[in-house]
Amino acid sequence: SDVQEVLSAAYLLSLVRQVARGMEFLASKRIVHRDLAARNILLLSKQQVKIADLGLSRDAYEEGLYRKTTGGRLPVRWMAVESLSHFTYTPMSDVWSFGVLMWEVMTLGAVPYPGVNNHEVLQYLLEGNRLNRPSDCAQDVYDIMASCWNSNPISRPCFGQIIQSMDSIMEESLDYFHFD
């Protein structure tokens, strides 16, 4: 039914909103996660999530910038363009990853960039391609994701702005169904 679909979408949005709140906190402490993905979110209960695997996280020193210089396996499908091309990590690169995480959640766990090989992801993104709007995902929710994938990090929303956008969507959903 329509009510079930909206409730499940609202539930998923409430989960990713919690992740955004956690990331807002980390950013306020100058911590860049660098591996934000659904696989690193713990569901403690039906209502509570926690951000895990801070193993790649770093203090974003030097004007909020961290540059990775050593090799290693990288989560390329979740990485921002500037992280893939210049190994540069900031809270804004975490915002990009958050957009991919939102896409993962709204697709109920699909792998980002289906049909694109890991070594092709950077070129795919440089050509202006982005993840498509998931079926059953409202346009305003997708708009939040898409804003996270701006090629210019400065043009991406901060986590506080993302939370405000989600709050507006959730309030409109509640108003639509007249829940009091």
TrEMBL record:
<dbReference type="GO" id="GO:0004714">
    <property type="term" value="F:transmembrane receptor protein tyrosine kinase activity"/>
</dbReference>
<keyword id="KW-0547">Nucleotide-binding</keyword>
<dbReference type="GO" id="GO:0043235">
    <property type="term" value="C:receptor complex"/>
</dbReference>
<dbReference type="InterPro" id="IPR050122">
    <property type="entry name" value="RTK"/>
</dbReference>
<keyword id="KW-0675">Receptor</keyword>
<dbReference type="InterPro" id="IPR000719">
    <property type="entry name" value="Prot_kinase_dom"/>
</dbReference>
<keyword id="KW-0808">Transferase</keyword>
<keyword id="KW-0829">Tyrosine-protein kinase</keyword>
<dbReference type="Pfam" id="PF07714">
    <property type="entry name" value="PK_Tyr_Ser-Thr"/>
</dbReference>
<keyword id="KW-0418">Kinase</keyword>
<dbReference type="GO" id="GO:0005524">
    <property type="term" value="F:ATP binding"/>
</dbReference>
<keyword id="KW-0812">Transmembrane</keyword>
<keyword id="KW-0325">Glycoprotein</keyword>
<protein>
    <recommendedName>
        <fullName>receptor protein-tyrosine kinase</fullName>
        <ecNumber>2.7.10.1</ecNumber>
    </recommendedName>
</protein>
<keyword id="KW-0067">ATP-binding</keyword>
<feature type="domain" description="Protein kinase">
    <location>
        <begin position="1"/>
        <end position="170"/>
    </location>
</feature>
<dbReference type="InterPro" id="IPR008266">
    <property type="entry name" value="Tyr_kinase_AS"/>
</dbReference>
<dbReference type="GO" id="GO:1902533">
    <property type="term" value="P:positive regulation of intracellular signal transduction"/>
</dbReference>
<dbReference type="InterPro" id="IPR001245">
    <property type="entry name" value="Ser-Thr/Tyr_kinase_cat_dom"/>
</dbReference>
<dbReference type="GO" id="GO:0005886">
    <property type="term" value="C:plasma membrane"/>
</dbReference>
<keyword id="KW-0472">Membrane</keyword>
<keyword id="KW-1133">Transmembrane helix</keyword>
<dbReference type="GO" id="GO:0007169">
    <property type="term" value="P:cell surface receptor protein tyrosine kinase signaling pathway"/>
</dbReference>
<keyword id="KW-0732">Signal</keyword>
<dbReference type="InterPro" id="IPR011009">
    <property type="entry name" value="Kinase-like_dom_sf"/>
</dbReference>
<dbReference type="InterPro" id="IPR020635">
    <property type="entry name" value="Tyr_kinase_cat_dom"/>
</dbReference>
